[in-house]
From TrEMBL:
Source organism of this protein record: Photobacterium atrarenae
PANTHER family: FELS-1 PROPHAGE TRANSCRIPTIONAL REGULATOR, PTHR40661
InterPro entries (UniProt xref): HD, Lambda_DNA-bd_dom_sf, LexA-like, LexA/Signal_pep-like_sf, Pept_S26A_signal_pept_1_Ser-AS, Peptidase_S24_S26A/B/C, Phage_CI_N
Name listed for the protein in its UniProt record: Helix-turn-helix domain-containing protein
Keyword vocabulary terms for this entry: DNA-binding, Hydrolase, Protease, Transcription, Transcription regulation
Amino acid sequence: MSNIDEQIKELKNLTNTSKNVDLAKVLGVSTSTIQTWRYRERIPEDIFTKARQISQNGVIAPPKGFVSLDFYEVAVSAGHGALVVSEEKSSDIVFSEAFIHNEIGVNPNNIFLMPVKGDSMYPTLKNGCLVMVNRVDQFTGDGIYVFRFDGQLMVKRLQFSKHGLNVTSDNTSYKPWELSKEEIMSSDFEVIGEVVWSGQRM
């Protein structure tokens, strides 16, 4: 048994599950994410943190018709990037499952929430606003993404170019820049997910 298989087995033991589909549901990820872990031979540490919390506290189900979304206190930067120290989940926020399915159009098991820090995506995303992120492990088309690059966690608008990806801010005070194909393929770059909704104070 490979190391990654042993890690997935450990997750199943912690969450009292036996199938990948059940493990994915309990952890709030898609089954394709588990396949990505196998492919990359790496599971994020926050996944083990969540599994240990489930093992200790059990899973508290939200009211019928609602879904509990993971909320991470660590702020994703909409400026020049903020160094990520940890991504420990602080609490859950409950949303209407129908709203997520019908209005947002994504799988509730595949999304999480986190705050935005900075003004580079203003006026689309204000400083301190909350973003809903749909987990994806690669660029899937022009849009606003949360991604890691060179040890920094950022939220920017990504657009395909013949040289790689254009990285732009909605605030015109910030200059656009580019990620080369080599940088995209390197271990310094990782797409976390696509921003599909935001909430903010007026």
